[in-house]
Fold each of these.
Amino acid sequence: GHFNRADIVILGGGPAGGATALGLKALGYEVTVIAEPRPFKAVEGISERVLEGLRNAGFKLALANLPDPSPRVASWNGATNSANTEMLINRSELDNGICKDLMSAGVTVINDRVGKVSEERSGFSIQFKNSEADPVKAGFLVEARGRSAPGAGLERLRGSETVSLLQYWKGEPCQPQSAAESFEDGWAWMAAWSDGTRYLQLTFDVATANLPDKAGLIDHCNSILATLPSAQPFLEDAQPTGIIHARTSTPILCREAVGDNWIRIGDAAMAVDPLSGNGIFQALSSALQAPAVINTLLQRPENAALAKQFYQQRVDHLFHRFARIGRDFYASEERWWNNPFWATRRNWPDNEPLHQETDPDSLKVVKMPVVNNGLIEEHEVVITNDQPLGIWHLNGIPMAPVVRVLQQKEIEISPQSCLQTQLGMSPENAQGLTRWLFQNGWL
Ligand code: FAD
């Protein structure tokens, strides 16, 4: 037919689509990315960790003009902390830079809005919204359109419906800075850019915030901002532009994020609410796993189930980890304990602790999917109560044989000597590993 399994098309050119495109290119695939620039202006704060993730994903031009970190004030539960910094980035510029990185890596980038996507017998046909160009055919489809990726028919886990209302004010040029502050019905994030643009974002619970209709929204937001001490520097000498934009920020997890000839990555696979300011980091985490999963689906269809299991487990894990971080942060705001905004969020998604103390009795050797040379394969790994996805290697040492040695009925001599005599480890390596095993609760 006219479908070629290895014609990979990525919808969306944000951090996730971009990172997967670069990863696939490195594995030798031809890749087409269809992306339109973000339809609205957005400022986002990124930490050193997110920057590191963007660098590791292979972006260069996208990171060429990033601003220096600027001060960040956080006011939560009545306490104020101004020890942190973040980089305030213009998302349109970041996404434009990502497209440039893709083109310089040899990825085909089509600048258009994706229209209808139809599944055909052995692939997908993608129509364009803004041009008369013929539909593009994809043997493999990567859905990376972020939160706007269509999800009808997919089983999804959703947290409380959440909306972030953004306003742009115009003020005098100033030092770049940002602030976050909680209030009775939600929390605010504010940023000021050196050119004087002020970016004011209030996040609410959709069901219980009693938000007024569109005409009254700006006044409602402004009356809240007027009461927030840390908002005052952002309002001084500045005027509202009258523009308000709503972004959905409901936590959402796709229960089925991968199929035989498609995968969802980034926010299209899972997104938590923007409280942690780590959205780009999470988007990159799923996007960086995707190339090996796609490579396996295309080259080793006999391992498809394994590859899908690998990917879904990681998406679920990432979602729960960041949802629980958010939950604990909401629980630390105690002033409006009975307000539904806070009450629902501090109890969701569950009551499991973020981390568990490792219980040495929980250690088990099991077969699990791992990444090896760009493919998903099954190998023996060690799982623990705190590491359900398993550990295959530690600094190049396979861990399953180590745990087998430790779990022998009677260890007459020290664990270190056992590792030396039974696994042929050098005394230094056996000593270093034994120390690690003790420190991490494996012994
Ligand atoms: P996106 O970055 O959303 O990329 C999707 C791309 O697809 C976009 O370029 C879009 O224009 C394009 N696209 C969409 N539909 C189509 C179509 N039909 N045709 C063609 N192209 C299309 N993260 C942080 O790290 N720091 C923050 O401060 C932060 N603040 C946030 C505030 C709010 C209110 C929200 C909702 C999120 C915030 N995030 C933040 C999260 C962050 O924006 C996302 O997690 C991240 O951008 C996800 O990357 P992605 O590549 O999956 O999707």
Amino acid sequence: HDVDIPTKKATFGMGCFWSNDSLFGATLGVIRTRVGYAGGTTKNPHYRSIGDHTEVIEIDYDPKTVTYEELLEIFWANHEYGLTTKLKRQYQSMILYHDDEQRLVAEASHRAVQSRCNETLRTEIAKADVFYPAEDYHQKYRLQGHKDFCRSIGLDSSKLQTSHLAARLNGYLVGVGGMNQFDQELPKLGLNEKQAEYVRRELERNEGGGLAC
Ligand code: MHO
């Protein structure tokens, strides 16, 4: 059930990447996600040797369904970006643009947020350079917590960064997207009735609960 349509990439640093992976995974128009390290200069970062890099989420989105502006609204609404919040560079607020159009939209949104915020924004805007995918155990972190379920949908490490289904379920299982959206999308996901019931139960349990890391 992989979705083969033209996509664009968006890359954001907005704190711990586990919750952002779920947040965007079940957002309308998001096709695939992966988490990793970017925005620094040191070579081959890892979770335990991140160097001057930041935890980021890389999103493949369908620009006909969701715009970059809309993704940026989700970005601003879901993390801390005030200069007085003390954060490690690992959790830097960051927009890594992939073309000039994204750069202009990102800069405009930054100006708009700054104008209604009484604190200086710490958010960095820079050109996307090398993206280093994080270790497998960080990908679709919430979904991977459901081991038997992952086995039942045939999720193995080769699909963690590329599966549309895994991206969606990683959101829905923690309550992102909501029941109505899940039920509308269900026919396209290719789950059997038992698997769908499992997701519904978790979604219901977690809806509105926030995405603590
Ligand atoms: N509290 C978590 C944050 C992980 S996140 C991927 C931990 O210390 O492992 O930065």
